Amino acid sequence: MTAPRITHVAAGILLRPDGTFLLGSRPAGKPYAGYWEFPGGKLEAGETGLDALKRELHEEMGITVTAATPWLVQTFTYPHATVRLQFFRVTGWDGEPQPHEGQSFAWQTPGALNVSPILPANGPILRGLALPPVLALSQADTLGIDEWLARLDRRLAQPAGQGGLRWLVLREPQLAAADYRALATEVLARARLRDCRVLLHGDIELARELNADGVQLPARIAASLDRRPRGLDWLGVSAHNADELAVARRIGADYALLGHVAETVSHPGQTALGWNGFAALTDAGWPFPIYAIGGMGDDDVTTAQVHGGHGVAQLSMAWSKA
Ligand SMILES: Nc1nc2c([nH]c(=O)n2[C@@H]2O[C@H](COP(=O)(O)OP(=O)(O)OP(=O)(O)O)[C@@H](O)[C@H]2O)c(=O)[nH]1
Ligand SMILES: [Mg+2]
């Protein structure tokens, strides 16, 4: 058997500062005409993904891309072709999108689309767009439970975009099972009032039982699973290398934490990946967003994105200002 021919495609997610993004409708005469997609098209011989993105967005809608960072790579088999789609987050462009190919455009809010149908390959992409740029891991171990809960309340009370916490992983390996369950119950009750997702760490059964938003799994536990656990909205996997990212892909994770990127007090003596090591791992192209973890501040979000990440995951930095 010969290997299937793969069509390489670059597509751009135009993002406005308010978080809305652009979809275009596929023009008549193309496969899946009328379906909504991210603007883009096929790589020509010798082009990189970024070259093709810039050319296609100029041809299809007359804009000049000035800032774009690599995001997800999705491989999908249609009846007519197997496509490898490289998605870029596009945050800077000159000009207003013009429908050069008779397409329609629609600005959309993540999680609340008002156009359909969407190209079948794009489901995971739309899910990934709903993930915030910064997520936090709890720190009751070093702060003490009462102090950490007080800081959590302050972070929950802030509006999104102004330091408001929207995604929390409750990771407290020092707690006995009964104490972890009690804390999880308390945290879920507080977070629900504030529209913050809470993922439990490592315990799939407990996450189901307490109706948490999902579970964050260490790579070791993820590797022991045949498939994604059922009945949970969100699945994150913590990874340190390409093999562990491959585990996350195999079980259909929604995102991965990858690190540690910088030296941290919590992991003394372990070699940090550094941004070059991080980029070398993201560069292979993964179908889910990847967060940089380990010594990350709010200022590192842009750096993470330039290196192929979605954003940053914070431990101590999430609570130091709260
Ligand atoms: N542009 C784009 N293509 C996508 C997306 N999702 C997805 O599965 N595709 C697939 O990627 C393939 C290439 O896209 P395209 O039709 O835009 O290619 P193109 O602009 O070079 O068109 P052309 O071949 O008519 O010149 C198609 O099979 C399309 O179905 C998406 O979000 N954006
Ligand atoms: Mg196109």
Automatic annotation (TrEMBL):
Keyword Acetylation: no
Gene3D superfamilies attached to this UniProt entry: Aldolase class I, Nucleoside Triphosphate Pyrophosphohydrolase
Nudix hydrolase domain ranges (all copies): 4-133
EC number: 3.6.1.55
Protein name (database record): 8-oxo-dGTP diphosphatase
Catalysed reaction equations from the record: 8-oxo-GTP + H2O = 8-oxo-GMP + diphosphate + H(+); 8-oxo-dGTP + H2O = 8-oxo-dGMP + diphosphate + H(+)
Similarity comment text for this entry: Belongs to the Nudix hydrolase family.
Cofactor(s) listed in the protein's UniProt record: Mg(2+)
Top enzyme class: hydrolase
Record keywords, A-Z: DNA damage, DNA repair, DNA replication, Hydrolase, Magnesium, Metal-binding, Mutator protein
Gene Ontology molecular function: hydrolase activity
Top-level taxonomy: Bacteria, Pseudomonadati, Pseudomonadota, Betaproteobacteria, Neisseriales
InterPro entries (UniProt xref): Aldolase_TIM (IPR013785), MutT-like (IPR047127), Nudix_hydrolase (IPR020476), NUDIX_hydrolase-like_dom_sf (IPR015797), NUDIX_hydrolase_CS (IPR020084), NUDIX_hydrolase_dom (IPR000086), ThiamineP_synth_sf (IPR036206), ThiamineP_synth_TenI (IPR022998)
Pfam families: NUDIX, TMP-TENI
